[in-house]
Amino acid sequence: MQLFKKHTKAQFFINFILVTSSFCGFYVIISLLILGSSNSKLLQHLHHSSSQDVSTISTNTTLDHIVFGIASSKSSWTKRKDYVKLWWKTNNAMKGCVFMDSISNEDDPSSLPPLCLSRDTSRFRYTFKGGLRSAIRVARVVVETVALNHSNVRWYVFGDDDTIFLPENLVKTLSKYDHELWYYIGAHSEIYEQNRLFGFGMAFGGAGFAISSSLANVLAKVFDSCLERYHHLYGSDGRVYSCLAELGVGLTHEPGFHQVDLNGNTFGLLAAHPVTPLLSLHHPDYTDPIFPNMTTTQALQHLFKAVNVDSQRMLQQTICYDKWFSWTISVSWGYAVQVFPSHMFLPDVVNVQETFKQWKQGNVWAKTYTFNTRPLHHDPCKRSTIFYLDNVSFGEDGMITSYYKKSFQNCSNELGSPNKLEVIKVVTNKLDLDIKQLQAPRRHCCDVLPSSASDQLEISVRECKDEELIFMH
Ligand SMILES: *[C@@H]1O[C@H](CO)[C@@H](O)[C@H](O)[C@H]1NC(C)=O
Ligand SMILES: *[C@@H]1O[C@H](CO)[C@@H](O)[C@H](O)[C@H]1NC(C)=O
Ligand SMILES: *[C@@H]1O[C@H](CO)[C@@H](O)[C@H](O)[C@H]1NC(C)=O
Ligand SMILES: *[C@@H]1O[C@H](CO)[C@@H](O)[C@H](O)[C@H]1NC(C)=O
Ligand SMILES: *[C@@H]1O[C@H](CO)[C@@H](O)[C@H](O)[C@H]1NC(C)=O
Predict the structure, then answer these.
(1) Consecutive H or E run containing 184
(2) What stretches in the chain show pLDDT beneath 70?
(3) Alpha carbon of 293 to ligand 4 centroid (Å)
(4) From the CA of 271, which ligand is nearest?
(5) Which residue has its alpha carbon closest to ligand 4 atom 10?
(6) The pLDDT value given to residue 124
């Protein structure tokens, strides 16, 4: 009984489906015949838009998807355009504008971004005592960069005229994130006190920061209303941060951006870069030239010789040991190699050496940093011997060779000290991080190679093996 009942039920359903589906098929055929060409247009349109969606999602992020908004002024541009020239790629490879308070004739427009005149901001109040009301004009760079109306934009990147970006690394880093979601990406200051005052959640403007296009389009619409409310704030970055906070968006921290709120010699900071692509440097006018015997601009141009060969490996720190002499060798690729005359544990080597002076005089917090630092050893013979980048080249075998030359000698008589070394040669392949390596970075390993000359040390940098540990053994 039961079986029979089921059978008839099933048959009924099959008949029902056959009838309805043939009716549907009939209907479709009829409507196709009737609608004819208009229907095929509709199908074409559907096909077109879906293929467009797929392509925008699946293609890799490139420089073409980024629009830069650089804040400058007539008084600073003359000097600082040299910094922008370092990283701005010509021949329309990059999009964006330098926002000025007034524009005079540009002498060398081909190698620099176009200049845009900032809109009038006199209608906004500025009530921070002792501050500069240009903060409003600079904050509105966000709005005015969006208003450039570029198409196919995924990211807006903002910075000052003394922010030195590494564009390829920006592209790589931003490609980790979905630009269709709301992202505000940047870094805070090196100084605890600055972050306490301005906010740990604020992307410091000089370090540069990125806003996804989906968020920037909304921010641009509401920004002026925020400016009215935050007249009491000091800077432009605080205004952007406050408005994003009102939109409910927090900071995504990327430690490759560098505000560089430091004075003097930034060697210690640069030599111990976190394992993440270098995205920016800032405040070159407040810090010593990063290479000895060079002007600030010459030194940065020298650094960019390495950036142009392997942007992603810039400053990446690798540690290895010379067993024979018990030396600890720290390679900060593209910048410097240090040889410490003794055995050091890895966590000590990756701490930032305090080579710099504090940003501003003040209370104890003014020299409290947001990372671990260690003082330089009081005995010059216990400090590292520093070898600075001399040259870097791409070999035919695809390997990259960089040479580092000893800069000065402060300790002359120690037996087995690294003093007799003059040159360090470092061999690597070109770094091209994939999405997984960007999301879960790992430091590379290095080996000391048998050297061909007694005054030369040769090092090869490579990916570590699965269970490889970096220690002296
Ligand atoms: C996207 O980038 C990855 C990693 O760099 C690369 O392997 C892949 O070929 C790229 N895809 C396209 C379509 O360019
Ligand atoms: C951008 O588009 C908006 C709205 O369509 C328009 O008001 C504005 O003038 C355009 N800006 C530029 C620089 O073309
Ligand atoms: C690179 O520098 C090393 C020493 O620092 C030197 O021996 C070599 O000739 C230089 N190579 C080039 C191509 O300049
Ligand atoms: C810097 O210049 C001084 C004096 O001209 C020279 O003795 C020294 O070797 C130079 N240092 C480097 C790293 O070139
Ligand atoms: C080396 O000695 C010079 C001159 O005495 C000094 O200016 C410099 O700071 C010293 N450098 C290091 C790393 O000790």
Answers:
(1) strand 184-186
(2) 1-58, 106-108, 409, 412-416
(3) 6
(4) 5
(5) 293
(6) 98
